[in-house]
Amino acid sequence: MKDFMFIYQGGDPDWATKSTPDEMAAIMGQWQAWMEKLAASDQLVTGGSPLHFSGKRMDPNKVVTDIAAAELKELVSGYSIIRAETMEEALQIANECPIFLSPGVSLEVREVVQMGNC
Question: What sequence ranges are listed for the domain YCII-related (predicted)?
Fold first, then answer.
């Protein structure tokens, strides 16, 4: 088995304040059910965490800038790590991810490279 990182991008930075408690509970319930299903099949390495939409970027010259709102659709908003045999299997798992319940999102799937003992 290989580990794959699901990198969640985009979304509405104000969804938590715009959603009613019932809407938020429904969405979180779907995330919980999806992660429980993955855990039961030993495919969940870590559920990861959502990331705050604001942040800073540092370039090689150590210049710090705010992350621009114009880049919101490309902004990483969270991650999870799952276990699958192949990229194709990881994509099948991604196909059922609740992230797609939100508008303006994408999901990037990347294999985690296992480094040798250094």
Answer: 22-114
User: Domain containing 83: what range?
Assistant: 2-111
**Residue 37 domain-assigned (yes or no):** yes
CB-count exposure of residue 38 (10 Å: 0-12, 13-18, 19+): buried
Sheet holding 105-111, edge to edge: 44-50, 76-84, 2-10, 105-111
| Domain annotation covers residue 117 | no
Residue 34, CA distances (Å) to 40, 74, 81, 112 in order: 10, 24, 13, 21
User: Are residues 79 and 9 in contact, defined by beta-carbon separation less than 8 angstroms?
Assistant: no
At residue 95, does pLDDT exceed 60?
yes
Q: Which two tokens stand for residue 79?
A: 């991650």
- Are 101 and 27 a contacting pair, CB within 8 Å? yes
At residue 71, the pLDDT reads: 65
d(CA 18, CA 110): 31
